[in-house]
Amino acid sequence: MDVIMVGSGGCMRELAWQMLEDNKSGGRWNITGYVDKEPPKGGSRLQVGDAVIPYLGDDGYLMDAGRDLNVVLSVGASAARARIAQGYLKNPHLHFPNIILGSAVTCSDLEAGMGCVIAMDARVSTNVKMGDFVFMNTGSMACHDSEIGSYVTLGPRSQLAGAVRIGGRSEVGMNATVIQCLTIGENVTVGAGAAVIRDVENDCTVAGVPARKVGCKK
Question: C-alpha distances in angstroms, 159 versus 67, 80, 137, 174, 197?
Fold first, then answer.
């Protein structure tokens, strides 16, 4: 599948590397280029391992596209991913495939929207539902009956136990865990390594073991 990637930061480069690695064992990703606000310094291409990915232009390249294109939003921050997606969705020629990489394991009954990324070694159990543009980083896990809102980011090796509900644009940091049957609100940040043992309201930041509220976003 031909795809164009959005962004040029660490998230994009790591995801591109994972897709290229996936191709070695039968993956089907052909990265035709990337877009970003600014061109790369010192040239028109981006090096990822042994691969060279050409720079295609800024957001206008996709916003103005008059032909069908597959796009991967390789942006780690939930709020930024949501903002970019909402702009691109205005162009009906742009399509957002779900990217599930070879070493990820997902149950066949997964219900996912569009533009989701499930990275290397991630695990998705039975009866999990996720919205659009969810980003599951390397080694993250969503256990049975979880519901994951649109634009959520799960950090590397983060874990949602069974029947967790997490609202849109929330982020769960690296190695953080959420115990079973909890509800995490919208626009929440769970700090790295946190252990969430009670529900979290909207627009909060929680951190620590056990996780406690350390700030509000409004």
Answer: 39, 23, 11, 9, 13
Residue 91 and residue 8 share a domain: yes
Locus of tokens 């499930």 = 118
Pairing between β-strand 45-48 and β-strand 204-207 as defined by DSSP bridges: unpaired
* Alpha-carbon gap, residue 86 to 94, rounded angstroms: 12
Judge whether 34 and 5 are in contact, CB under 8 Å. Answer: yes
pTM, to two decimals? 0.94
pLDDT of residue 218: 67
Are residues 4 and 63 in contact, defined by beta-carbon separation less than 8 angstroms? no
Last residue of a domain, one of 63, 78, 95: 95
Cβ atoms of residues 191 and 212 within 8 Å: no
